[in-house]
């Protein structure tokens, strides 16, 4: 009875348009009242969920990403990407993919990625004769790589969500995301090139500018790119912890945007602070409330019952993993990324582990599925931003999204069914 109330109330509230955090909290309170338990349990679990040291990394990673967004790093990365691949067929599309990938690694946020790179590349591509739907699709799909890069705060959220289920280190997740990020980039490049050739997009006049131009553009963007090297190098060398690395990322972002590039204005700094505070507040609320929601899911054995339902359909691991992917993708279209991670991890991680999947591999699969949800209506925050920049409707973009969805699906299936893609690099540092 209580489980029915939990599920039905949560679903109804979401359908009514209630914000996810409030929907989770109200459904938890309704379940408590129905079960006749003290309502203080909800608040105890909320406070307990937020009292985790590693959570401190989230506001710092978010702040670092916002500083990168407002600090003029995107333009230098675009110039570097364009000097490298701008001369091939549909070169601006290829440059867009590389630019989004590189900036995603620096900022760690798909939304910041599409905002920064999209505001530069989408108008430029439209000016050079590229269709708006192509420009938006390339940008929004390439930006998703930011979700699995070392500077992504979603990695921290996943480690928090695994508490009590499995032991997953932040470092292992950071390393696990690098190879899938490369695979995702290659898939996006293939899709961008295929569509560009099919539509007959132009080649950049003048051809390849030479390796000297590539080197000059690379050196100009290098200070921004070093943030990933500093974070991973510092953690692997033992100079600082994964949580401390987030504050190092903020310090480095401030250093290069104020002293090296000198592009961060006071008003931009205040905007970065305000957005970082807003995002941190939302994530903190979600983490606290989801801790209470997760308590009830564990109390009423939701993972076990879900696993039994899946096993009644098939006992083959590859079928189970496929069902998990489908469910994560569907839920990701309705829920924000952080909410999907916090709600779905306690349900699906035990099932995946039961069928032989490593929790680190599951984490990367979870993040890729959540990233796909950012580019799918009705939530689709990344897609909405891209459409707003491109001056095109979501419906027009969705009509030609097939090749790009296909590229992401190929990447997801490779990471799901070939564990080495996500586990090889973390295994080297055990």
**How is the main sheet built?**
none
Number of domains: 1
Distance N to C terminus: 45 Å
How are helices and strands ordered from N to C? HHHHHHHHHHHHHHHHHHHHHH
Overall description:
By secondary structure, this protein is mostly helical. It has one domain. Helices cover 78% and strands 0% of the residues. The chain is built from 22 helices and no strands. The protein is globular and about 70 Å long. The N and C termini lie far apart (45 Å).
Structure summarized in a few sentences:
The protein has 430 residues and is mostly helical. It is built from 22 helices and no strands. It starts with a helix and ends with a helix.
Topology:
Elements: H1 2-15, H2 20-35, H3 40-50, H4 57-70, H5 73-85, H6 91-107, H7 110-127, H8 132-142, H9 153-161, H10 170-176, H11 178-199, H12 211-237, H13 242-260, H14 266-299, H15 302-313, H16 317-332, H17 337-354, H18 359-373, H19 381-390, H20 394-399, H21 402-417, H22 420-428
